[in-house]
Each structure stands twice: as structure tokens, then as C-alpha cells.
Design brief:
- Two copies of one chain form a homodimer.
- With 305 residues, the first copy, chain A, is α/β, with parallel strands linked by helices.
- The N and C termini of chain A lie far apart (38 Å).
- The first copy, chain A, has ten helices and 13 strands.
- In chain A, helix 6 packs across helix 7, helix 8 runs antiparallel to helix 9 and helix 9 crosses helix 10.
- In chain A, strands 5-4-1-8-9-10-11-12-13 form a nine-stranded mixed beta sheet, with helices on both faces. A four-stranded mixed beta sheet of chain A has the order 3-2-6-7.
- Chain A has one domain: UDP-N-acetylmuramoyl-L-alanine:D-glutamate ligase.
- At the A-B interface, helix 7, strand 13, helix 9 and helix 10 of A face helix 7, strand 13, helix 9 and helix 10 of B.
Chain lengths: 305, 305
């Protein structure tokens, strides 16, 4: 595969402690970059940038490698891996963060391997905006498409850095509440107009079990549902898997047309629908291309009229 | 138009006091049957059953008549019209009921005009289940399609009556939270399975600004978005307008196929999108068929991939 189809992702790599109303996993491998990579690697070459501590499970490294993820840019550092602990509410739509420990991410300074620098696609998954900027700055040529995700924490404590990096990206994927928070709006359409004025020409608003709204490169709106599921085990990482499926489709096809961006939203929704069916990336492991294509077809059936 | 395409609706007829974060209307004509009728009458003949007091504005009667709604079944009673007062929260997605006065609905006993009794389509809009039952019982032949809407109040205080009428309807339109409340489930897919076991073969779950989910007559799922709007003036009646657009399309076409039920969901969504753009039925008044068809097309554009 040529460099133009390669997809670099930087973001958190984590060991989570996830508590849901019906179950709990104390050492759940996660982090935005891990979820993203597991959701993307079936479709295009993925190169991961991040940092882990000595406690990161070797089995997870093996899973990423088995999925085809390039780990040359994953730094092994002394100390503990980033940790997040959270508890989901009864309806699984909202959660409380109980603990966050940056650990090895506190002193992390990403260094992109030479083989990553020419990639055509770059996704700056959720992590400090300054780290996102550092990765973008190390690309040898400006990628064809740069995407970014962020969270309420960075809107609060690193707003200037976030605004600076936003001006340099093509696609923003962001939660509904965060889009309102970022812009100080109460209406999503007005928030989207403001955000598109800050840099990204394509904006994907993630709405959890309600799906996603995409303001495409032409400004026109596309609405995609989430797949209604009878059993949601763990919503952690669904947004990152969405981004992984979305970016991977664009990288694999190299087609940035409005029509293909819409398809990418559905591929993202497809990968997110798997994510929530298990803890960690359990439900993404071992999927065949046929499995994934059949699930994409369920979105076709769900929306056609 | 033949009786088989006629659509009878029974439900509340109200004078509301609506407070939103940015505006307020003290005498806002509303009620489920009024919203339903205003959203349906452009597409098929609508016959309304309800009761008003001496305070009901003559202008609203004129509006209903101008829209073509048959008011022979609208009883004029001594006393005050049903009144509801509510306040919407900042995001317009939720509201508090401040006051409810049944007034003339307390002693209402619906008597269907002879010309209503052979209608092919019947919608039992939100009102006491016992009144819904009384109307259904007065139909001379079982209508081709019977739809029903309800609310949390009746789930709480008239559950037996509600369960009895549910067993006799084909379509239930219900809010997401109310679907969970009715079934004691926390998952919507499981709630839908339970509800479809209670009677309705078609179930439409209304999700406000997130659109609607329809479990069709074949059990297959259809997801429709709401139209993202830059300005929402007053969400009151949106669900009733949805039901009006939905039922009217089925009555006008007489086609109950799975494919046409999906189109009906989009027609419902189309009418709901108008409803929220003004207080009362302001934004529904004076629409041309061309206006409405153009807005339907916006749903096509919003969802195609």
C-alpha cells in the first residue's frame, strides 16, 4: 500500500476501569488510539503514535499487531500507562469519570518514525491539543486529510491550544454536548456553523445511541442513525471506533467526495456498533470483512425509504 | 373522497400556556387532536372528535375549517377548554408541566357522528384511554388501521385501560421514555419487542430532536432523523403532528406495505419539523402541497448515502 493510503493516529493508549450497571472490568485495554486503530486496521494500513508504561498488557500489543497495526510509533516508557476509571448510568448514555491518571502521558513527547511522516491521512484522536499539534508538525508533507477529536477537558483547560490546532484540520468529530460547549451555543446547527468557521470543513457531531450528524465538505447535512442494539455491554470507545471506521474508509478509497464522506459516516457507525457490544475492543477482534460488510448493509436496511 | 380514505381523530383540544427560554404564549391553541388534524388535513379528509369550552377561540375553529377539518364531532360544552401550562428547559428537549386542568374533558363522553363511523382510518390521540376505547367502540366497522398515542400520565393512572385499548390497535406512537416506562425495560429494542406483544404490530418510538424509530409491520427497523433546525420556537405538538403526517399518508394512499409505512414516517417527520418552528400550529397554517413536498425532499437529501 502506498503512503497516500496510510493512516496515522495519535491518541491515548489506556488501561481503563469500566463499571456498567450490570458488569465491571478492572483492566480494560482502551484509549482513543487503540479503539481507533482496532476499528480502522481491517480497511487500510494504520500507524499508531502513543505511549505505554510497563503495565500495559502484552496480549493487547499482540492483538494490535495481529490486526495489522504498525506499532513503531508506540513508545514504551517507565511508569504506568494512562488510566481512566468511569461508571455508566442505568441508561448507558451518560457516565461519570471517577479517576483519570495521565501517568506516562504527562511527559510524553511524540517522535514520529520516518515511515509515518509521509502518510496521506492523519487522525489526531483525543489527547492534549499540544500533543496533537506536535504530531501534525512532524509530518513531512501536509496530509491529504487531517481529522481531530477532542473532549470537554481540553475545551476547559487548553482552549487556546485547541483553537490553534482546529484551524489546521479538515475534519472534527465531536460529541453533541462538546460542540455546544466549544461554541457557547444551545442550538446544534448554529454551533456547527461556528465550528466550521474555526477551521474544519467537515464536522461530525456524535450523538451516541442517536447516531451522528455530518456537516459535509459542501456544508450539506447528513444524518446517520446508530444501530439499535438489544444489548449494550460497554459504550467506552464507541466514538473512537466511529472515527476509525470513518477515516479508514476515506484513506482506503482516497475519495473525499461528499457522497463518499457520507459512506464513511456509515462505516464509522458500523464500527461503533461493534465496539459497544463488548468490553474493550473484544467485539472488534477477529471480525471478517464479510462480517463488517454485512453489518454495513444493516444500516442500508435501517435507513432506506 | 370515499370513507375508506377518511381519517378520524379523537384527542385533546386545548388552550395551552407555553413558556420557552426565549418567549411565552399564554393562549396557545393546542391539544393532540388539533395538532394532528392541522398536520393531516392537507393530505386526506380528517374528522375530529373532541370537546371545547366557551373560551375556545373562534379564530382557531376558523383555522381548522379552513384547513378542511370536519368539526361535526367537536362538542361545544359549558365551562373551560382543557388547559395545559408548561415550561421548556434551555435545550428545548425537556419540559416541566406546571398545570393541567381537564375542565370540559372531565365529563366528556364522545358521540361519533354517523358520517364518522365508517372511516377507514382512526387515530386515538393522547387522551384518557377510556375515551379512546369509547371512540373505537362506536366505529360501525373495524377501521383498516387504528393508531394510538398516549403519555406517561395514563401509563401511571390508567394502566389497565391502556393495556386493554393497546390490544386493539395496529400502530402505537410513543415517546422513548414512555416506551421504557410502559414496559419496565431500560433497552429500547427489548421494550419494542414487549410492546409489539401487547397488540400493535407497528411501533413508532418518538425521540424528539433525534427523530423516530419505527418497528414496521414485518418487525424490521427503520430509523428516521428529525430535521436539524436553526431555530426551534415551540416543540409542543410535534409528536401529534408527526402522527398526523404519518396517518394521513397511509389514509391518502391506502397502502399499508412496509415500504409505504417508512414513507409515512418521513411524512410524519416532515410535519413535525414545521410544527416546532412556531407557537401553536402557526407554522403549519397556509402551507402549500409544494412547500410540504419540498421539505419531504430535505429528508431524502439528509439521509441518502
Amino acid at each position: 500500500m502506498e503512503a497516500k493510503n496510510k493512516l496515522v493516529v495519535v491518541g491515548s493508549v489506556a488501561v481503563d476501569w469500566v463499571i456498567t450497571p450490570s458488569a465491571e472490568r478492572e483492566h480494560s485495554v482502551g484509549g482513543a488510539a487503540v479503539y481507533f486503530a482496532m476499528a480502522a486496521a481491517w480497511a487500510c494500513p494504520v500507524q499508531l503514535v502513543g505511549v505505554i508504561g510497563g503495565d500495559f498488557p502484552a496480549t493487547a500489543l499482540a492483538d494490535l499487531e495481529a490486526a495489522g497495526v504498525d506499532l513503531q510509533g508506540l513508545e514504551r516508557s517507565d511508569g504506568l500507562t494512562f488510566r481512566w476509571k468511569g461508571r455508566y448510568h442505568e441508561n448507558m448514555n451518560s457516565r461519570d469519570t471517577l479517576e483519570t491518571h495521565l501517568n506516562v502521558f504527562e511527559r510524553f513527547s511524540p517522535k514520529l518514525p520516518e515511515s509515518y511522516r509521509g502518510a496521506g491521512f492523519l487522525f489526531l484522536a483525543n489527547i492534549q491539543p499540544s500533543l496533537q499539534m506536535a504530531v501534525l508538525d512532524q509530518m513531512s508533507t501536509r496530509p491529504t486529510l487531517v481529522g481531530l477529536d477532542t473532549m470537554n477537558l481540553w475545551i476547559d483547560i487548553a482552549n487556546d491550544d485547541l483553537v490553534a490546532i482546529l484551524a489546521r484540520v479538515d475534519v472534527l468529530t465531536i460529541n453533541e454536548e462538546e460542540a455546544l460547549q466549544l461554541t457557547g451555543e444551545t442550538n446544534l446547527v448554529r454551533a456547527a456553523t461556528k465550528i466550521r468557521g474555526m477551521g474544519p470543513t467537515t464536522l461530525v457531531i456524535k450523538r451516541g445511541e442517536y447516531g451522528a450528524l455530518c456537516f459535509g465538505p459542501d456544508g450539506a447535512l447528513f444524518a446517520a442513525p446508530a444501530l439499535p442494539l438489544e444489548s449494550v455491554v460497554d459504550p467506552t470507545g464507541a466514538g473512537d471506533c466511529f472515527a476509525g471506521g470513518f477515516m479508514a474508509h476515506l484513506a482506503a478509497t482516497g475519495d473525499l467526495s461528499v457522497a463518499n464522506v457520507r459512506k464513511a459516516v456509515i462505516w464509522g457507525s458500523t464500527m461503533a456498533s461493534y465496539c459497544v457490544e463488548g468490553f474493550s475492543y473484544d467485539a472488534l477482534r477477529g471480525l471478517s470483512r464479510e462480517d463488517i460488510e454485512a453489518r454495513y448493509q444493516r444500516f442500508v436496511d435501517l435507513t432506506r425509504f
